[in-house]
Amino acid sequence: MSDALIELQNIDLTYNPGTVNESCLFTNFNFKASKGEFVSIVGSNGSGKTSMLNLICGGLSAQSGKILLEGKDISKVPEFKRAKRIGRVFQNPALGTSPELSIMENLSLADNKGKHYGLGRGVDSSSRERMREMVRTLHMGLEDKMDLKAGSLSGGQRQALALLIATMTPLDLLILDEHTASLDPNSSETVMELTDKLVSEKELTAIMITHNLRYAVEYGNRIMMMHEGRAVLDMDGPEKEACRVEDLLDIFNEISIECGN
Amino acid sequence: MGVFLSLAENVLREGLIYGIMAMGVFITYKILKFPDLSVDGTFPLGACVAAWAISSKLNPFLACLMAIAAGAIAGCVTGLLHVKLRISDLLSGILVMTAMWSVNLIITGGSAIKQFFNMPTIFNSFPQGAASSAASTGLRLTVILAITLGVKLILDWYLSTKNGLLLRACGDNSSYVTSLGIDPGVMKIAGLAIGNACTSLSGCVLAQMNENADINSGKGMVVMALASVIIGSALFKRLSFLKFTTMAVLGAIIYKACLMIALQLGLPNSFLKLLMAALLTIAIVSEKIGKRGVENE
């Protein structure tokens, strides 16, 4: 693990500093992920999973520490600029698309990411067929409803579309923030399979937060468990391959007992 | 019958002029979800710019372009206050609206009403119209219709471009715009600039028709524009072939018709603003009731 793609160095993060609600989450927190890794992060609520992703994406800034993307410090780069290299799918399916725009318009916008959003035609007739083909790979029958508003799709369909949109243009890093958590079991399974397919097809580096321990075990090549702003478990390679859901549950319970829950 | 026709012509004329503003407010209120109060200041801004330009013997069409530019700048200020200085949307609008009062007075040279009778305006600058000081009713309506239609077509075109799609996405999901690598704040400022440019043009056309600019003419413009937008989109939303710009203009015409009918039925002039506020209240409440039926909230 020499060439880290994304690296968090000596992060200190305190919420509401200087007030009665002050709560320290990270002290000297470090994290590293190399190119090609698919890291699943598990852990109880408030363990710092989402805060870590927000630090990487730029929605949150730490009191001290560095965030390096391919060796370059991006901790001062605004969120929208980081988004050019970092794709993200949220827990809420509504956040990944524009509900008022049609599927076609949403995809056309995403296809233009990284380029200039000028006064050219929003939906290019030449790329229509290409977009349809892309949507066909979802196997949801959406390729015949390209002019439907994204807001009228089901959560599973919207999340699948959001995944497609997030990975359409070349990416350094894909961030999945509990992206299956608000879906029904069936859609959740479909979206997870699609995630795995896209990540391996496009050889993406991905960081996924999930509360589904089975997904953490079945997918990806590294598991990390977080607790109170620390990584209490970090497995990859054969160790990760051997890990079972029961093992994760045991560790989970141990931690909870320590905390007196 | 003659009275009725002239009233209908009046409604149509004013509805079309205020329709330009309604289209602008549709962009800020319906697309960006930004209740922009600066409209009360940028409407007379357009009128004052027109009065200044025409009194300075500038081309009346150039006056329109200047009004558009002035409105766009004012809209940018509202946007910058909100996006860069993080002042709330309502307060940003109030600040610009208040500041505009002074700006408008400076433009008119300190007078609240600036007249420019018998000067070339967009309504009499045509070969046949130049001769008669009072342009014919038909010509007047044609000029207004052409301008409103022109603005509508430009806005329709813009909203189908890549940049326009981004603007539409910005209003209903700004984190989506962020994830596309674009600063949603910039799009907000752009939208406010467009909205206020339309409003200012609307004020400019009205002033040229009346041949005077009244810096008080902005009072209640927000209420009028919002009511037009809400009425238009509520009444015509099922007609999916209608573009939102058309709905906004139709809304403005219907709104003007309501006011006209009330005045004809004997409502005293002093009650006008009260009626305007009541109409907007009814429009907003009925929109909410309509939504409840669908979403069952």
Describe this structure in words.
The complex is a heterodimer of chains A (261) and B (297). With 261 residues, chain A is α/β, with parallel strands linked by helices. Chain A contains nine helices and ten strands. In chain A, the strands form two sheets. Chain A has a six-stranded mixed β-sheet. In chain A, α3 runs parallel beside α5 (155-166) and α5 runs parallel beside α6. Chain A is globular and about 60 Å long. Chain A starts with a strand and ends with a helix. Chain B has a single domain (2-296), classed as ABC transporter involved in vitamin B12 uptake, BtuC. Chain B has helices at 2-31, 39-55, 60-83, 89-108, 127-131, 137-159, 162-172, 174-179, 184-210, 221-236, 244-264, 272-295, and strands spanning 113-115, 212-214. Chain B has a two-stranded antiparallel sheet with strand order 1-2. The mean pLDDT of chain B is 91. Classes of the chains: A alpha/beta (261), B mainly alpha (297).
Helix-strand layout with pairing:
The complex is a heterodimer of chains A (about 260) and B (about 300).
Chain A: E1 4-15, E2 23-34, E3 38-43, H1 49-57, E4 64-69, E5 72-73, H2 79-82, E6 86-89, H3 103-111, H4 128-136, H5 155-166, E7 173-177, H6 185-201, E8 205-209, H7 213-218, E9 222-227, E10 230-236, H8 237-242, H9 245-259
Parallel strand pairs in A: 3-8, 3-9, 6-7, 7-8
Antiparallel strand pairs in A: 1-2, 1-4, 4-5, 9-10
Helix pairs in contact in A: 3-5, 5-6
Chain B: H1 2-31, H2 39-55, H3 60-83, H4 89-108, E1 113-115, H5 127-131, H6 137-159, H7 162-172, H8 174-179, H9 184-210, E2 212-214, H10 221-236, H11 244-264, H12 272-295
Antiparallel strand pairs in B: 1-2
Helix pairs in contact in B: 1-6, 1-9, 1-10, 1-11, 2-3, 2-4, 2-9, 3-4, 3-9, 7-9, 10-11, 10-12
Calculate Rg of chain B over CA atoms: 19 Å
CATH architect. name of chain B? Orthogonal Bundle
> How is the biggest beta sheet of chain B arranged?
2 strands, antiparallel
Give the biggest beta sheet of chain A: 6 strands, mixed
Give the assembly state of these chains: heterodimer
Q: Level of helix content of chain A?
A: 25-40%
Order of helices and strands of chain A: EEEHEEHEHHHEHEHEEHH
Mean pLDDT, all residues of chain B: 91
Shape of chain A: globular
- Uncertain runs of chain A are none
Order of helices and strands of chain B: HHHHEHHHHHEHHH
Please identify the structural class of chain B as seen in this structure: mainly alpha
How many helices of chain A? The count is 9
Q: Widest sheet of chain A: strand order?
A: 6-7-8-3-9-10
Largest interface: A-B, 34 and 23 residues
- Give the percentage of residues in beta strands of chain A: 15-25%
SS-based structural class of chain A? alpha/beta
Tally of DSSP β-strands of chain B: 2
How many independent structural domains of chain B? 1
The Rg value of chain A, from CA coordinates, equals 19 Å
